[in-house]
Specification:
With 71 residues, this protein is an all-alpha fold. It contains three helices and no strands. It is elongated, with a radius of gyration of 14 Å.
């Protein structure tokens, strides 16, 4: 079984990197594109993983967030 803490950490790291890359892309620097530029398929998969991480974090947010939890 997948360790949920590890899954949460991977999702958060992907969101940080994806968010920073999106902000830098708006300024004209696509860092992920620069790193994976010779492999556009990997860049596409990275973006899919960032999107999947966002869905995961949104779905599990209430349980993980100290401010939003109902307990």
């Amino acid at each position: 079984m997948i360790n949920l803490k590890a899954l949460h950490m991977v999702a958060c790291i992907l969101l940080w990197v994806g968010g920073l890359n999106l902000g830098l892309t708006a300024l004209g620097f696509n860092v992920v594109g620069m790193v994976l530029g010779s492999m556009p398929g990997l860049e596409t998969w990275f973006n899919i993983l960032v999107g999947a991480s966002a869905v995961y974090v949104v779905v599990t947010h209430r349980n993980d967030c100290k401010m939003c939890s109902t307990s």
